[in-house]
Amino acid sequence: MAEAAADRDVNVVDAGAAGAAVDADVKARKERERDELYALDISDAEWQSAPGTEDHEERVEIAYLPAGAVAMRSSLDPGTVLRYTEAEWRAFVLGARDGEFDLEPAPHDGGPTAE
Q1: How many Cβ atoms from other residues are within 10 Å of residue 68's Cβ?
Q2: Helix (H) / strand (E) containing 9
Q3: Which of 4, 62, 87, 71 has its CA nearest to residue 37?
Q4: For burial by CB atoms within 10 Å, which of 3, 11, 57, 75 has the most?
Q5: How far apart are CA 99 and CA 95, in angstroms?
Q6: C-alpha distances in angstroms, 25 versus 29, 37, 89, 104?
């Protein structure tokens, strides 16, 4: 009986160590991807914004990068660029389509919120 309990404890420790190793591998891979993504020269990137927006309007712009990655910036601050892997961008787009990022309407003119 004591041996069975000891074996269970060893298996739990082994599973925990394996999980930690997988987490470390994933973290290392993501850091490598980020470093590679931010090392890309995007000075010649072709920036796009939503159809119908004008150059003088505040807007979000995106540029497609190699390997399915995407860069995103604000037209008000084009020097600050966020970069996403293909998987990150796909997760964002699908989440946006599903309404995960929908904002609650803000009260206008300081009036009470509708309930």
Answers
A1: 12
A2: helix 2-39
A3: 71
A4: 75
A5: 6
A6: 6, 18, 21, 38
| 60-64/70-74 β-pairing | antiparallel
Identify the residue whose tokens are 């919120």: 113
Q: What's the number of CA atoms in the CB half-sphere (13 Å) around residue 70?
A: 15
DSSP-assigned states of every residue in 34-100: HHHHHHS--TT---EE-TT--TTS--EEEEE-GGG-EEEEETTEEEEEEEE-HHHHHHHHHHHHTTT
Q: Dig out the tokens for 41 from the structure.
A: 């020269």
pTM comes to 0.66
Backbone angles phi, psi at 110, to 5 degrees: 70, 10
Kindly report the length of the chain.
115
pLDDT tens digit at each of 115 positions of the chain = 656 555 555 555 566 777 888 899 989 988 998 888 889 899 999 999 988 888 788 999 999 999 899 999 999 999 999 999 999 999 999 999 999 999 888 777 655 555 5
